[in-house]
Amino acid sequence: MSPTPINLPSTLIIEDDLYMQGIISQCLSENFTTMVFSDGMDALTYLQEGHIPDIIITDLNTPNLGGMQFLEQIKSSGFFNSIPVVILSGVDNTETRIKCLEAGADDFIVKPFNPRELEARIKIILKRSGKITLN
């Protein structure tokens, strides 16, 4: 196995389900460095310690600080508000999607999802924000 290049885009994943953590991490491991947290409060602390990822992927329903509250905290901060955020949720509800997008989410993906679609959407967001270039 070859070493992972250091200059890969970084992804912060907030997901409390271990199975989903594994799926997301596995899906992104080839093209991204990943840091995984089970709850939003630990992830927020990680950010406040000076770790700035290129993109954040968060489940809506996480302990201690849910995805919507996490999103609102990030988007109201002068330090973190430019970090793209993708919401994952098992809730397939138009009102929930609209609420998240209006609060500043860059995308909303319903679980279960195709891991390749998640990766493609992340790449598009990062390309749009100038973090990566795609061929």
From TrEMBL:
Keyword terms, alphabetized: Phosphoprotein
GO MF, one annotated term: phosphorelay sensor kinase activity
Residues of the Response regulatory domain: 10-126
Coiled-coil spans in chain: none
Leader peptide range in chain numbering: none
Residues modified to 4-aspartylphosphate: 59
Protein name: Response regulator
